[in-house]
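One thing: mind reviewing this one?
=====
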Amino acid sequence: MPRAPPTPTPRRPTKTATTPTHKSTTRERGVATFDDATRKDWVNGFRKRKTQRRKRAAHDAETRARRERVRERATRRAAERAALGIAEDEGEDGATATRDGDAAEETTYASGASVVVAHGLADAEAEDT
């Protein structure tokens, strides 16, 4: 028996010019008016913002570099103090640096003045001379 030709699948209807669509807003054109000052501000605003970003980036880079230098100085100072054998004893009233093994005596008077007397530094100075 001969085969029957396959039946074509129905096609979707295509849109035609008569098919109603949404209202196009592109055909309704408005007129943009700028006064010269507003136009100049709008055009130059790009340049101003770009310059402002560059200045802010330079300032931030300078601030980061300054903080890094401060950190490096503090690290160097700590290393030098460790090499010299100077220990930092920080109290509530501030930092007092003495050599390891040397004694420091602090006296606080009623007037609020405090005196720190370090013992043993004179011997170290005498050895150096």
User: Anything to note?
Assistant: The CA atoms of residues 93 and 114 lie 9 Å apart. The two ends are 128 Å apart (CA to CA). The longest helix spans residues 36-84.
